[in-house]
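G., the chain you wanted modeled:
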Amino acid sequence: MMNRLSLEESVQLIKFYYEREENVTLALQSSMQQNKNAPKPHHTTVDNLIEKFERTVRATDDIESMKRSENIVIPPKLVVRALELQELQPDISLMSFA
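Predicted structure as C-alpha cells:
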C-alpha cells in the first residue's frame, strides 16, 4: 500500500508537472532525483493528484478542498507561482494567491 503524499511532496510534484510541460513521467523523474530516498509514487497517483489539483486548486485532501468549484481554470504559470507562495505561507489557501 502506498503512503499518502505529504503536502511538500504533493506541491513539489505539481510544480515539476507544470515546469516539465505537463509530463507526469518527467515530473516523477525530477522528484526522484531530488528525493533519492523517498518511495516513488505510482504514475496513477500523480495523475490523480494533478486532476484533483486542477479541479479544486488544492494540493491536499482536506474538507475545504472538496468545497471548491469544479469549473476553475487557472493558467499554468499562475499555478506554479501560487504553489511557490503556498510553500512560503502554507496556512493560506492557493485561492488567495490566484
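The chain is about 60% helix and 0% strand.

Shout if anything looks off.
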